[in-house]
Structures are given as structure tokens and as C-alpha cells.
Design goal:
Elements (H helix, E strand, L loop, with lengths): L2 E5 L9 E5 L7 E2 L4 E6 L4 E5 L4 E6 L6 E2 L5 E7 L8 H11 L48 H9 L12 E2 L2 E2 L9 H10 L17 H13 L29 H16 L2 E9 L1 H9 L1 H7 L5 H15 L5 E3 L6 E3 L5 E3 L1 E3 L2 E3 L2 E2 L7 H16 L13 E5 L18 E5 L3 E6 L4 E14 L5 H16 L7
Parallel strand pairs: 14-18, 18-19
Antiparallel strand pairs: 1-8, 2-4, 2-7, 3-6, 4-5, 6-8, 9-10, 11-21, 12-13, 14-17, 15-16, 19-21, 20-21
Helix pairs in contact: 8-9, 8-10
């Protein structure tokens, strides 16, 4: 019988995935599209299905193994029945791929790459489908944890080097060209303002990993500073002395969110501006769309309307659609409008990005928002669906609250917080009348956005939400 090797597919922009579940065993018989392996990236999980029916004859990876490139063999299947006739095509691909390396590789089942955590996201909660008023590398190998790490340990220290003593090769300072690091590590270093020549690598042959950069930054933060004050660490406390406790490991998304929020808070001078939008007419219009929504099989929540209004306000106020360059002397002006939506999921906070908001109708946005929210909660978002945002909306409207200060999702320079709408008395010139008021809070990076820029953006946004006919102007 013919055999077929199932391999890691296109990672969709992810630098690394981890094997988190193998629901099969050698000897099992699987049908077409049965799940063979479950992989997890920084923000999403993906199930690798069987492309043919047959019998499992080898599992080539292990749970916990990290993979940093596509094409890595996962499972070998003995193809059965009619599927055997088409098995030769994948086998030819397999032989072509396996012939590419210039030196022998180890059995994939015994490989596991070094962990390289990444960074992402924003801080508030969203429920994009809620009816209530919103708010809401380098890839060159899979390293083994055996001989490779032992070799690396003899060539590089396991702790980041002293901040005052850059590492040297043969007694000479390292130049950029001598630094053994991939593009992802170099980008992380630029974002954190770290000189890689000051960091020691713990990867194979002294390769610099993201862990090394994070460790270096942590050391700098905790090290005593002359002429200034370092950020003090929070001491561990034995909470067990007060009662029963349980130590629970954070999810990967939770750890990434915490690291990103901490980095953003330390690096971005935040300012938050507050205002209320009168959405009385907006809500009446939205409610009138229910019959049409049922006919379309879509639901018009406030989120698509807020997205559209933000897109118009961003186009009129391009200062909020910039990103500060790492050299601190330039900024990048974006000429596209992609907006992220913070979504609360059982696995943690994720921010899918709605692309080209300014070019889509409200019904198109409604359908896309619903689809992305469902994928986020099911852990089905791809990396590409969470990249490229210019601006973020973080909504607590389905939960409650009168306002909050969202943290800017760097490298973006602004984020809009949306709280729960309330009926309030508003003076119309003759008397007080009840109006549906939506609290908004705009946090921005004061290095790029001035108070006048933020004020003009908020004034226009409030006017757009107060009279959505302005979206046509």
C-alpha cells in the first residue's frame, strides 16, 4: 500500500507553532478530514486534518514540540482503498522537500525547538456580536532539546550579559553582521530599543532568541540604576499562609497580552480624552434595520456603525493613523484604514482586524464582524487576521461601566474605548429631554498625537454618531 506524509501547512505569517494535542495513536484508522494534530500559534489554534483515509503508521512529532516552518512532517498514513490511487502526488512533493536539506536531519519525533514567545494585543473587552450598545523569522530548523542545547550551553552563557559589558567574539566587539539572529528577533529588539550586540544568545551555536532579548530587558529593568530609579519588582508572597490557594499557569495569550500591555505602558506617554455621543437617532435607525437584517441573514449591531464612523474620522484626521519609527526621528503615515476589534474569548483577549473599513458598506462590515468574532471565540483566527491594524476599538458596552482608559495597542497611536450607553437628560434649549448617550474614551500616544489632534477626532466622531447621515458627506 502507498503511504502519505502529512506536513505542516502554510503558517499564515506565524513565526512558530506548538503541537498542543495529538488525538490519534499509531495503528488507528482515520477517515478523510479527521483531525490528526492540533497546532497553536500565538493567537490561534489550527487542526491538521487527514487528507486521505487510512491507517496511522507513524507519528513524527510530540506534544509540546515547537515548529518554526512549514513542510515539517507530522504524521505518516498508510493510504487505504480508492485514496491510494492519488497518494503518489503528495509522495512526490515529500521527496522533493526532503531532498532540499544539504545535511541529514534528525527524526522529527525527537525534535523540539526553543521557545520563542511573541508579542501582541490590547487591553479591553469586546463582544462584537452583542445586541446591546457596544463598546465591546527566521525559520531554518527545528532544534532538539538534546545535543543542540548542550552544545549551545558550552558556547554562550545562560544568563543575559551585564548591561555594561557587551559580548565579544575573539576579543572584538560584535558588529551587526556578526550577530546570529533572525529577522523576528531583530524586529523585537528594535521595538524594545535593545542593541543586540549587548545580548548573549542561548540558542544553537549562540543564536539569539526572543527569550534572550526579553531576559536582557528584564535584567535592565531590575538592575540598580545610578542617577535614576529602576522599576521595582513585585516580591512574591506566600499566599498559602492566609488560606488555600492554587497556582495556575497563564495561557499563552494571557502571557502575551500581559507582556504587550507592560511594554506599551512603559514606552507610551498615554493621554485619555472623554466625551459622550448622542446615539438616540442611531439606535432608532439600527432598530429599523431588523427586518432587512433577518432577510439578509445578518444582524446590524452598533459595532459596524462605530467602525464606519471611526474610518471617516481617521481619514479626516490622519495624525491618528500614524506609527512612530523606532529611530524616534520619523513616523510612518498609513494610507489604508484597518481597524482592530478587541474580543473577549475563553482563551483570552484577541484583536481581529477588519481591513479597508472605509471601502465597505455597513452590511459588509456587519457580516465580517460577526464572522471574525465567531472565529475569535472558537480559536480559529489566523495570524494574518490579527495583523495590520491602524487603530483599535475596545468595547465594554455589552458589560457595563461609564468609562475606562484603554491602553494604546502599540505600534498604533490611538485606541477608542466604548462603554455602555445610558439614558440621560439633555438640554435642548427649551427643556431637558431623555437622550441615549454613549460614553467614549480615546487614549493616544502623546509623542505623535497632540491634544488638538485628539480633540478634533473626537468632535468629528461624536458628530458622526449623533447624525449618521454625515457618513455620506
Amino acid at each position: 500500500m502507498a503511504t502519505e506524509i502529512i506536513k505542516v501547512p502554510d503558517l499564515g505569517g506565524a513565526e512558530e507553532v506548538e503541537v498542543i494535542e495529538i488525538p490519534i495513536a499509531v495503528g488507528d484508522t482515520v477517515a478523510l478530514d479527521d483531525t490528526l494534530v492540533v497546532l497553536e500559534s500565538d493567537k490561534a489554534t489550527m487542526e491538521i486534518p487527514a487528507s486521505k483515509a487510512g491507517k496511522i503508521i507513524a507519528i513524527l512529532v510530540t506534544e509540546g514540540q515547537r515548529i518554526d516552518k512549514e513542510g515539517v512532517p507530522l504524521v505518516e498514513i498508510e493510504v487505504s482503498g480508492e485514496a491510494e490511487q492519488t497518494a503518489s502526488v503528495p509522495e512526490e512533493k515529500t521527496s522533493a522537500v526532503s531532498a532540499a536539506p544539504t545535511k541529514p536531519t534528525e527524526t522529527p519525533a525527537h525534535k523540539k525547538s526553543a521557545a520563542t514567545p511573541a508579542a501582541s494585543e490590547t487591553d479591553a473587552v469586546a463582544d462584537a456580536g452583542a445586541e446591546d450598545v457596544p463598546g465591546d523569522g527566521d525559520q531554518d530548523r527545528i532544534t532538539s532539546r538534546g545535543a543542540d542545547q548542550k552544545t549551545a550551553a558550552t558556547k554562550a552563557p545562560t544568563q543575559p550579559q551585564s548591561v555594561d559589558a557587551p559580548p565579544a567574539a575573539n576579543g572584538k566587539s560584535l558588529a551587526d553582521g556578526d550577530i546570529y539572529a533572525g529577522p523576528a528577533v531583530r524586529q523585537l529588539a528594535r521595538e524594545l530599543g535593545v542593541e543586540l550586540r549587548n545580548v548573549s544568545g542561548t540558542g544553537p551555536r549562540g543564536r539569539l532568541l526572543k527569550d534572550d532579548v526579553h531576559g536582557f530587558v528584564k535584567q535592565r529593568i531590575n538592575a540598580p540604576q545610578s542617577g535614576g530609579a529602576a522599576v521595582p519588582g513585585v516580591p512574591d508572597i506566600d499566599f498559602g499562609q492566609f488560606g488555600e490557594v492554587e497556582q495556575v499557569a497563564m495561557t499563552k495569550i494571557g502571557k502575551l497580552t500581559a507582556a504587550n500591555m507592560h511594554r506599551s505602558w512603559l514606552n507610551v506617554p498615554h493621554v485619555t480624552q472623554f466625551d459622550d455621543a448622542d446615539i438616540t437617532e442611531l439606535e432608532a435607525f439600527r432598530q429599523s434595520l431588523k427586518p432587512e437584517g433577518e432577510a439578509r441573514g445578518a444582524k446590524m449591531t452598533p459595532v459596524p456603525i462605530i467602525l464606519k464612523a471611526c474610518a471617516v474620522a481617521l481619514a479626516s484626521n490622519p495624525v491618528l493613523n500614524r506609527a512612530l519609527h523606532s529611530d524616534g526621528e520619523h513616523y510612518m503615515q498609513k494610507h489604508y484604514i484597518h481597524i482592530g476589534l478587541a474580543v473577549d474569548t475563553p482563551r483570552g483577549l484577541v484583536v481581529p482586524v477588519v481591513r479597508d473599513v472605509n471601502k465597505k458598506t455597513l452590511w459588509q462590515l456587519a457580516a465580517e464582524v460577526a464572522e471574525l468574532a465567531d472565529k475569535a471565540r472558537d480559536g480559529k483566527l489566523t495570524v494574518n487576521e490579527m495583523q495590520g491594524g491602524c487603530f483599535t476599538i475596545s468595547s465594554l458596552g455589552a458589560i457595563g461601566g461609564k468609562g475606562f482608559t484603554p491602553i494604546v495597542n502599540t505600534p498604533e497611536v490611538a485606541i477608542l474605548g466604548v462603554s455602555k450607553a445610558h439614558i440621560k437628560p439633555l438640554w435642548n434649549g427649551r427643556e431637558f429631554e431623555p437622550r441615549n448617550m454613549l460614553p467614549l474614551s480615546l487614549s493616544y500616544d502623546h509623542r505623535i498625537v497632540n491634544g488638538g489632534d485628539a480633540g478634533r477626532f473626537m468632535t468629528e466622531l461624536v458628530a458622526l454618531l449623533g447624525d449618521i447621515r454625515r457618513l455620506l458627506l
